[in-house]
Design brief:
Structural class: alpha/beta
Bound molecules: aspartic acid, magnesium ion
Strand order of the largest sheet: 3-4-2-1-7-9-10-8
Distance between the termini: 50 Å
Low-confidence stretches: none
Strand content: 15-25%
Number of helices: 12
Helix content: 25-40%
Shape: globular
CATH architecture of the largest domain: 3-Layer(aba) Sandwich
CATH class of the largest domain: Alpha Beta
Number of strands: 16
Amino acid sequence: MKKAEKVKVYKFGGASIRNAGAVRNMAEIIGQESSPLVIVVSAMGKTTNALEEILEKARNGQSCAEFWERVKNFHVSLVEELFEKEERTVLNMLQELFCAFEKQLESLAPEYDEAYDQLVSFGELFSSAIVAAYLNSLGFLTEWVDARKYVKTDGTFRDGYVNWDMTGQLMRLNLPSVLEEKHVLTQGFIAGDVENHTVTLGREGSDFTAAVFASCLQASEVTIWKDVAGIMNADPKRVAATVKYDELSYREAAEMTFYGASVIHPKTIKPLANKKIPLWVRSFESPEERGTVIKELPEHQELPEAIIFKDRQTLVSFKAKDLSFLHEQALGKLFKLFTRHHIRINLLQNTAISLAVCFDSDQDKVLRMLDGLREEFEIQVIDGLQLVTVKNYRGKNLLRGLKKEDVLLEQKTLTDYQFIIREEMKS
Ligand code: ASP
Ligand code: MG
């Protein structure tokens, strides 16, 4: 690869490497590209969910042997199907990772978030080891790179906050020379703090990893390879007539992901927008199609309405008990609590004496947050909700059968309409 060539970043999620056929398909896509690539992979298939279950069982003192056998067998069979010559070497390498996992399982950190990161991060280690070996076996020179040594975060387990200066320095110091000769193959989702503890970036965080590498290495573009044709204006599983966007502005895409469009992780857009790096969303099933590109575009384009559902929402309302107005001090106190408990608000409404906030359900967090507040506030908690956002709203009733009384809370701006309904109302 020539030095002058710009690096591109390719991200392959779990579905795109869910079995041997999928991994072969991924390699074909890589084979089409002549630029040096940073390839970011997630855990294979549903491995992350399986590892979460193992952690759950282990923490509850239950046996997780059967689950763990399944995870091991899945990876071993995949290797057996994929490799001819190098099979033994790859299996040995995998065996070492399995041993390291078992050691972690025996000495789990008492704190959940930390234990989670030490254990669940192995999904990406398994997948990246296999994929790197496979690409090399095909003659695509590929360097396996440990993302934990480059994506540097603070010590917030399960939600690491990236230290951009350190991350950028490390990447720019070491990776360009590798990329002159090889592709870099690394893990999404996992990172490391300064003391080299493994820290994850939150579920589905691999997209964000791709953006971090792209931003720090000033890549020419990022492609997220998905099982959908691009970004649609609504989830085809929920809404009958959908259209695909050919292009979206960074801003439009950022808002859509914030409201719950799950095609890309919400944190992905900002670092790319800052560096004006285009982000492609393309289908690994039909790589010949163009997909959707997110880039800098003029504001106020005429776009079709987008309908976005965000499930598993909780609505908490606070009313001042003594009917005093919710003044700045009380609001300040509540907002400090939201920050302290990492509650990210998806919708907020206030009246003279009450404040209602809607956020992703998490019972433990809510209990911790409300502890001690009931003396001052009358508090109501409603779980099992969904937040529906209609972007570029044009006034039609888009959800069949939706009645006024189904809507628990609603808000309109010039362009968007948002409302909260119970989850059983799902279309
Ligand atoms: N493997 C992780 C997850 O399933 C990260 C990712 O896929 O983006 O959440
Ligand atoms: Mg995934």
